[in-house]
Write a structure and sequence with these properties.
Helix content: 40-55%
Radius of gyration: 31 Å
Protein name: Potassium channel protein
Distance between the termini: 72 Å
Structural class: alpha/beta
Strand order of the largest sheet: 3-2-1-4-5-6
Shape: elongated
CATH superfamily of the largest domain: NAD(P)-binding Rossmann-like Domain
CATH class of the largest domain: Alpha Beta
Order of helices and strands: HHHEHEEHEHEHEHHEEHEEEEH
CATH topology of the largest domain: Rossmann fold
Largest sheet: 6 strands, parallel
Number of helices: 11
Number of strands: 12
GO biological process, one term: monoatomic ion transmembrane transport
InterPro entries: K_chnl_dom (IPR013099), NAD(P)-bd_dom_sf (IPR036291), Trk_Ktr_HKT_K-transport (IPR050721)
Pfam family, one: Ion_trans_2
Organism: Pontibacterium sinense
Oligomer: single chain
Number of domains: 3
Length: about 325
């Protein structure tokens, strides 16, 4: 039975009950009192503060209002429960239309990497405006973190209908990490076309495909695998792997973060930031991106000028949520 038929049946039950009790001469069950009495009677609560007074009214209640009301109440409750369970199941299976904005979309699933990525993203999101996270996959699976992240299952990463359910065009950040670089390339091209203003990051194993995507979508940040470089660095400088892991993981120790120097602030030197950051926030400035083009200058000169709008990269125990720029610039 659909919702329209259910509503029609409820209205018919109310109308027939009203008509029969009115015909029986009931005077105390009128207006809002009638609706209140009918609801508590049909739901078996039955407070007893209102009841029919005529013999005919009592018979109508005993043989029509109560039995039909109980059946209708059970039918309605079952319908609501089934609908709620169906909606919950749709969310778990990734078939539900989401309503999100300024969120993070993770495209692709890898049994080894993606769970750790989601865990770290949840930690980062908790420290940074609490943005929602939506995982988008193509395989037959359920939401790996129900209640913590949103989930969409698509036929393909370039399917308009399915990707629209993930609100891709309204996302602020899109992370692409699929099982194959070809899929990553396709997803990157599609995501760029749907949301050119988003910060898009794509992981590639093949550098040539990363360069190809960068040629067509210059604002996408292509992240290569650095496992080989990290192994060599750890071999030559023991402890480097632990150092890099700590800088990248918000879950442990000191971590690298970034902040944009606000518009309207005076031009300062790196020296003007370096000491105040350390004194007031126990943070260390390590790089600046003067043009905010994703190519930061690491270990800049102390005399390097910092203009409003550029990005500052720093190391700290936690993300600094509120900078007192006036205090820094007045140092």
């Amino acid at each position: 039975m659909n919702w329209q038929a259910m509503m029609l049946l409820v209205l018919l039950y109310i109308a027939v009950s009203w008509g029969m009790l009115t015909a029986a001469g009931e005077q105390g069950l009128t207006g809002s009192d009638f609706l209140y009495w009918l609801l508590v009677t049909a739901s078996t609560v039955g407070y007893g503060d209102l009841s029919p007074t005529t013999a005919e009214g009592k018979l109508i209640v005993a043989f029509f209002v109560i039995p039909f009301g109980l059946s209708l109440f059970a039918l309605t409750a079952g319908k609501v429960a089934a609908f709620s369970a169906h909606q919950w199941r749709k969310g778990i299976m990734g078939l539900k239309q989401l309503t999100l904005s300024d969120h993070i979309v993770v495209i692709g699933w890898d049994e080894q990497r993606t769970p750790d990525m989601l865990r770290l993203l949840l930690l980062e999101a908790a420290q940074n405006q609490g943005r929602k996270i939506c995982l988008c996959v193509t395989g037959a699976m359920e939401n790996p973190l129900p209640g913590e992240i949103e989930f969409v299952r698509a036929k393909a990463f370039n399917d308009d209908h399915d990707m629209a359910r993930a609100c891709l065009s309204d996302a602020s950040t899109i992370i692409i990490d699929t099982a194959q670089d070809d899929f990553t390339l396709t997803a990157g091209l599609y995501a760029y076309g749907q949301n050119v203003g988003a910060h898009i990051i794509a992981f590639f194993r093949d550098d040539s495909l990363a360069r190809l995507l960068k040629e067509h979508c210059p604002t996408i940040e292509c992240t290569p695998s650095v496992s080989t470089e990290l192994m060599v660095k750890a071999a030559m400088d023991p402890g480097s792997s632990c150092l890099h892991r700590e800088l990248l993981s918000v879950a442990e120790g000191m971590t690298q973060f970034s902040i944009q120097y606000p518009a309207g602030m005076p031009e300062l030197s790196v020296r003007d930031f370096y000491i105040p950051l350390k004194e007031h926030y126990s943070a260390t400035l390590i790089a600046i991106d003067l043009d905010s083009d994703g190519r930061p200058e690491i270990n800049p000169s102390l005399d390097q000028r910092v203009k409003a709008g550029c990005t500052l990269y720093y190391i700290a125990d936690n993300r600094i949520k509120s900078f007192d720029w006036a205090k820094l610039s007045a140092h």
